[in-house]
Design brief:
Shape: globular
Order of helices and strands: HHEEHEEEE
Strand order of the largest sheet: 1-2-4-5-6-3
Helix content: 10-25%
Oligomer: single chain
Radius of gyration: 14 Å
Strand content: 35-45%
Length: 137
């Protein structure tokens, strides 16, 4: 894990991304990569990863991408998100999310996350828009 990924992983302690088990692999201004082990408590009754877990995973990666691209002291929030569920991820497997920017503007950024299973098959494609908020003061 790179230095930036390690720093952000530390900031995620005690909040939802840690609860989900998101493990950052790479964080740069152009890409965020992370993994998630599909645990029983993240699944539906059919032992398949719950759509809400998939969406929270992708939302976290898009937010991280925005954070590393916005001015110091600014904040961000998701203002729109669209998820296409393409395939399943079985309990016990590991999924990977790769999140890249579409456009990165000053006030909004759009990120797309491809979530794949261990075989490289697409599980979901998520596109989200993040607003960049000025410092509170």
């Amino acid at each position: 894990m790179g230095n930036l990924a390690a720093q952000i992983q530390e900031r995620l302690k005690g909040i939802l991304p840690e609860l989900l088990g998101i493990q950052l692999v790479e964080v740069t201004p152009e890409k965020v990569i992370a993994t998630l082990r599909v645990r029983a408590d993240l699944c539906t009754t059919g032992k398949i990863l719950h759509g809400g877990s998939i969406m929270a995973f992708a939302d976290t990666l898009g937010a991280i991408g925005t954070v590393v691209n916005m001015p110091q002291g600014h904040g961000t929030a998701t203002i729109e998100s669209k998820t296409n569920f393409v395939g399943g991820a079985a309990e016990g497997s590991v999924i990977t999310g790769e999140c890249t920017p579409v456009p990165k503007g000053r006030t909004t950024q759009v990120w797309q996350t491809r979530i794949t299973n261990a075989d490289g098959k697409l599980v979901a494609l998520v596109t989200q828009t993040q607003i960049v908020l000025p410092p509170r003061g």
